[in-house]
UniProtKB/TrEMBL annotation:
Residues 99-182 form the Core-binding (CB) domain. It comes from Salinicola socius. PROSITE patterns: CB (PS51900), TYR_RECOMBINASE (PS51898). InterPro entries: CB, DNA_brk_join_enz, Integrase-like_cat_sf, Integrase_catalytic, Integrase_DNA-bd_sf, Integrase_DNA_bind_dom, Integrase_recombinase_N, Phage_int_M. The keyword Cell membrane does not apply. Belongs to the 'phage' integrase family. Residues 205-382 form the Tyr recombinase domain. It comes from the Bacteria. This is Integrase. Pfam families: Arm-DNA-bind_3 (PF13356), Phage_int_M (PF22022), Phage_integrase (PF00589). GO terms for molecular function: DNA binding. The lineage of its organism: Bacteria, Pseudomonadati, Pseudomonadota, Gammaproteobacteria, Oceanospirillales. GO terms for biological process: DNA integration; DNA recombination. Keywords: DNA integration, DNA recombination, DNA-binding.
Length: 395
């Protein structure tokens, strides 16, 4: 006879284990200590007998135990062992708990940090952006459970707040985390790859910079500036197209004045790859003058109060403001000036992009690694450019 709640409640523990039968393999086992547990006896798909626990009574009621029996028998009818299915579900649950977006993001960051050099701006910026904009919403969710619509809503929030550049960066970081998860077998697909078309394109504003017609006037103003370190720095920006940060943090062991080459290590470059800069004769002459002033320090441009640290990042900008170029030209604008000037002179785009330490677009960026450092290529190009700016100079 099938069990009833009255019958279950009426049976008291004895000196031996008591087994009450409900039918179709379902049993309630009452131990001599009084504990009561549901068991299901069944035949595995391979023909062997087995028994599985369905929980304790009364936490699992009679009705719930029968439901579990029905579920188990349904699996058996499909050739699935319910115990093996339970183990698989437990493994999947543990896998999900271990592979939250936050956990994978930190693992991705730890993998990438050596390439960025852990103290780099990109390394700090990536994890800070994730902590501010992503982790509070989806950080603790298993990565496979986050829906594309959730990502769309989350990133659209940044867009609606006017944080287009931040949205672009966050999207890039999250997309790369998914790529890492797919490669390492923790995600089956990347839901962010198809979302890019749903966002408003972000056009980054160019830095203020003078026109080619205004350039001679800027050069004259720089030549007349009173601070020799800043004056030389600004001239070098115009002759090398380096980023201001790369210039300020430069070290003397990067400079080969005899070969007229400036070799910047990967950890100091925005793109994370070493960069060689040809030095025109005018730049070599300025560097020799600078060496007299700062050669005893490791840095080309040591700080005024602490020579072990580089010149303030405001120094070049403040100088341009004092020259009357506030809002018209900033240090980073020198790169625009150089790029435009070289393009108007007809030099190949690949040479110009390499001088700027830019990655070439599309497939070129994958397969093209030429530095164009042959004497007749970038060195000749930058020498001609320096001649246009400052006239010919012998070293």
């Amino acid at each position: 006879m099938p069990l009833t709640i009255r019958k279950i409640e009426s049976i008291k523990p004895g000196s031996k284990t008591i087994t009450l039968i409900d039918g179709a393999g379902l049993q309630l086992v009452i131990s001599n200590t009084g504990s009561r547990g549901w068991r299901l006896r069944y035949t595995r798909p391979n023909g062997k007998r087995n028994m599985m626990s369905l929980g304790s009574y009364p936490e699992v009621t009679l009705a719930e135990a029968r439901e579990k029996r029905t579920d188990a028998r349904r699996l058996l009818s499909q050739g699935i062992d319910p115990v093996e299915r339970r183990k698989e579900e437990k493994r999947e649950q543990q896998f999900s708990q271990q592979n939250t977006f936050r956990a994978l993001a930190h693992e991705w960051h730890a993998t990438m940090a050596p390439r960025w050099k852990a103290n780099s701006k990109r390394s700090k910026e990536s994890i800070r952006s994730l902590e501010n904009y992503i982790f509070p919403t989806v950080g603790d969710k298993p990565i496979e459970t986050i829906k594309p619509l959730e990502w769309l809503e989350l990133l659209k929030r940044l867009e609606h707040a006017g944080k287009l550049e931040q949205r672009r960066k966050v999207y890039s970081f999250c997309r790369d985390i998914y790529r890492f998860a797919v490669i390492t077998g923790r995600a089956s697909h990347n839901p962010l790859t198809d979302l890019s078309g749903a966002f408003t394109p972000h056009k980054q504003k160019s830095f203020p910079h003078v026109s080619q017609e205004e350039l001679p006037e800027l050069v004259e103003a720089i030549e007349s500036y009173h601070n020799p370190l800043v004056r030389i720095g600004l001239k070098l920006l115009l002759m090398t197209a380096l980023r201001p940060g790369e210039m300020r943090q430069a070290r003397w062991d990067e400079i080969d004045l005899e070969r007229a080459i400036w070799s910047i290590p990967a950890e100091r470059m925005k793109m994370g790859r070493a960069h060689r800069v040809p030095l025109p004769s005018q730049a070599v002459a300025e560097l020799r003058r600078l060496h007299v002033m700062t050669g005893q320090y490791g840095l080309l441009f040591p700080g005024r109060n602490d020579p072990t640290k580089p010149l303030s990042d405001a120094a070049f900008g403040v100088a341009l403001k004092r020259m009357g170029y506030q809002g018209r030209h900033v240090p980073h604008g020198c790169r625009h000036v150089v790029a435009t000037g070289l393009k108007e002179l007809g030099y190949p785009g690949e040479w110009i992009e390499m001088q700027l330490s830019h990655k070439l677009p599309d497939i070129q960026g994958v397969y093209t690694h030429a530095e164009h450092m042959a004497p007749e290529q970038r060195p000749a190009m930058m020498q001609f450019w320096a001649d246009q700016l400052f006239g010919t100079t012998s070293v």
